[in-house]
Amino acid sequence: MEWLTHPFPPLYDKDSRILILGSFPSVKSREQMFFYGHPQNRFWKVIAGVFEEKVPDAIEEKKRLILKHHLALWDVIAECEIVGSSDASIRNAKANDLSEILKNAPIEKILVNGKTAEKLYKKYIEPKTGISAQVMPSTSPANAAWKLDVLTETWGKELKFTRSSPNSLK
After folding, report:
1. In this structure, is residue 169 part of a structural domain?
2. Catalytic residue among 41, 96, 143, 167
3. Is 41 a catalytic residue?
């Protein structure tokens, strides 16, 4: 078990409307210093599929895809003890502070990527913000029961919601 601090900043801009939170970066994400770095994680295929775009390879392409569609990325956990990439091993977690994002972007919805992110969000962040999050099926390869097309369809229902008026969570 190793004590780690989240190694890279959130991704958002002044137009981000939906905040997607993972739990804590995997070993591959920590090596790449960017979100969803493991090649077997289906996150980038899902996001590209929802918006009918090419699956991005380079980090700059991934950033453009997220910001183009008014999304934001961050993780629930700022620091924790963890074994490798195992969410189940997370201990002594300290949450990220979402206030910077919530203050600087008109976030309308928060999605958490998987059950572990949901559990951590409900424990550490929701009591502080009072904002509930919608749990999404994990894009992790460990969630093999969910096929890519079903994941993409399910995520699409939350990512492509109709905005009738500015309705941020602030």
Report:
1. no
2. 41
3. yes
